Every structure is written in structure tokens, then in C-alpha cells.
Amino acid sequence: MRAAPCRARCKIRSRMKIAARPREEELRRSYDLIAPKLAEVERELIRLCDSPVATISKIGDYLRSGGGKRIRPALLLLSAKLLGYDKGTTDVRYAAVVEFIHAATLVHDDIIDEAKLRRGRESVNSLWGNNLTVLFGDYLYTKSMGVALEEGDLTILKILSQTTLAMIEGEIIGLEREGDVDLDAEGALAIVRRKTAELFSAACRIPAHFAPEGSDAASERLALYGRRLGVSFQLIDDLLDYTARESVVGKPVLSDLREGKLTMPLILSLPEATAAERAKVARVLKERKFDSVSPFEILAIVERYQGVARTRALALENARAAREPLSTFPDCEAKAALMLAAEGLVERAS
């Protein structure tokens, strides 16, 4: 079946988009609070990627130069500031650790998904092949744990270990459910919590174990904040696969479906879809391409049952819930920035 004209596809996408209220200036000010620390994190990432094995340094430089918002390090640094940590480099070191763990999951995911693009550039596996890329991902994981060991806090090391295990479990469950049109919202959220939200949670709670005003209670509140924020972040990521342009998100749109993955906009649409519509989705999941079914037809199904609007509403619900655990902390710039992050990540366009 021939794909619909670009004009028709764009028309559907424009109808599916929901007006956001961008707060770019406020978000920039939030980043300004930790800008010197983020610069230190970048230097730490460079240092940690420096290896006598030239290929490791080369891949590390390539991955780092591809950019990224450094959301998880920023959340860790803001949480540390919230709890009175200003001097020293412990926050910087752990921020680099969570970014390394995140980067490791990305390069491993790209191998599993056979992805060709990452952030608008060729993926690491496209340039260096699967064998070297999987070893580089292993290197990042091991290096991150080595840094955590050097810092010497066994409680934090346990958090990082449990987080990494949860992420691997999420990946396994996700792979087992690939191509499954019966995957429901709760099942999808369980995967999201493991694969994405647990690392957000770890990034936010770690400072409670080294900052002056940290405590077990603060750790639990920040963990809950991060977990809910991570769910919201991933739901918007799912949504952007249906609404954004490739030039904005840095990967082909509807790429999740091409990889056999059902995400929330379709998951919320399928229970109301007709048997014929469900069959179309099943066909794309099986074929892993848009040959017998066009992208236009999938976008039309999602629009018909308001999959994008309902996904955004669910993301907003989680973002608002994320703010609740912060209410007991004293008002300060860092708290305001964390509050704003819960809203700003829902409004993002990439």
C-alpha cells in the first residue's frame, strides 16, 4: 500500500499535537544554578573516557560530542544543592556515574534495536559494529561502578546496583513483550518504571546519602520524585515518536513500532480499535516496516482514539504527582528548579 502524501501526514500530526506552554527561560535559569557543576561533570566524563586503548577513547569522545541534555546529572546536582551540598566533588563524581550508566543503556539498546541513528547522528553500533559497541557499553557500566567504589559509600553502591539490575529486568521484559498487541497500559508502565524511571529515581536520591541535610526520609522522598518524573519523561518520549519530526528528535519517527515495540499512544488506542485496525498494527509489528500498512494509517488510528492526548494527560498526571514529595523540603532555588523540571519535561519538544 502506498504511503500517504507528506501533506496528509503532516496534517494528522498537527492535529495530534497539543499546545504546550514552553518555559525555556525558566528552565535555563534552573540549569544556571548548577552550570559550573555541570561543566565539571563534562570534564569528569572526558577524564573517565580517557583510556590507553585508543578505541575506547575514540568511541567515548564520539558519544559525548553527540550532546544530550544531561538530565540525570542535572537532577542529581539539584538534589544535592537542595540538601545543602555546595563544596566538594562528590556530587560531580556521582553525576558522571549516572550519566555513564545511562550512556551504557543507550549503546546496548541501539544494538538490540539495530538502530542506525542516535541524536541525529550515526549510532555507535553503525560505526563500530555490534561487537565493539557491546564491549564499550560493558566498559561504561564497569567504569561507573568503579567510580562509585572509589567514593566508598556502600549504601549508594547498593542503590546503583539495584537500579542497574532493574533496568536490565525491564529490558528483558520489554523484549519478551515485543510484537504483543495485548500489552496493556499497566504492563507498559511496569516496563517504563524499570527501564527508565529507576535511574531517575537513583539520580535524585543518591545525594541524600552524602549531603549535609540528607537522611533516609529525604532519600525516600527524592526517590519517589525521580521515579514519577522518569515515568512522565518516558511517556513524553513515546508521544514524540508520533508527533515530532526526525530532524527534531534525532531518530526516525514511528521508530518504536518499526522495532516491534508498542508504546503508550497506541496501547491506549487499541482497546477501542476495530479488529481491522488491530490487525494493521499487528502486521507492522510483525513486518518491522511500513510496507503493507502505511505510517498514515497508524497515525490515523492513534488520532481517532486520542492516543496522544491521553498519553500526555498520563504524563502530566505523573509529573504533578512527582511534585508532591518535594513539598516537605524548605523553599529554595533548588527546590523551585526541581518543581519546574516536573513541568518542563512534559512540555519538551525533543
Protein architecture, described:
- It is globular, with a radius of gyration of 20 Å.
- The protein starts with 5 loop residues before the first helix and ends with a helix.
- By secondary structure, it is mostly helical.
- The chain contains 17 helices and 2 strands.
- It has helices spanning 6-16, 24-33, 35-49, 54-65, 71-82, 90-113, 124-151, 154-176, 185-205, 216-243, 246-249, 255-258, 264-269, 275-287, 295-304, 307-323, 333-347, and strands spanning 117-118, 121-122.
| Termini separation | 30 Å
Structural class per helix/strand content? mainly alpha
The strand count comes to: 2
User: What is the H-and-E element order?
Assistant: HHHHHHEEHHHHHHHHHHH
For this structure, what is the CATH class? Mainly Alpha
Share in β-strands = under 5%
Mind telling me which CATH architecture this is?
Orthogonal Bundle
Radius of gyration: 20 Å
Largest sheet: 2 strands, antiparallel
Question: In CATH terms, what is the fold-level topology?
Answer: Farnesyl Diphosphate Synthase
- Largest beta sheet: strand ordering: 1-2
**What fraction, in percent, of the residue positions are helical?**
over 70%
- Poorly predicted runs are 1-5, 17-22
Provide a quick synopsis of the model.
With 350 residues, the protein is mostly helical. It has helices at 6-16, 24-33, 35-49, 54-65, 71-82, 90-113, 124-151, 154-176, 185-205, 216-243, 246-249, 255-258, 264-269, 275-287, 295-304, 307-323, 333-347, and strands at residues 117-118, 121-122.
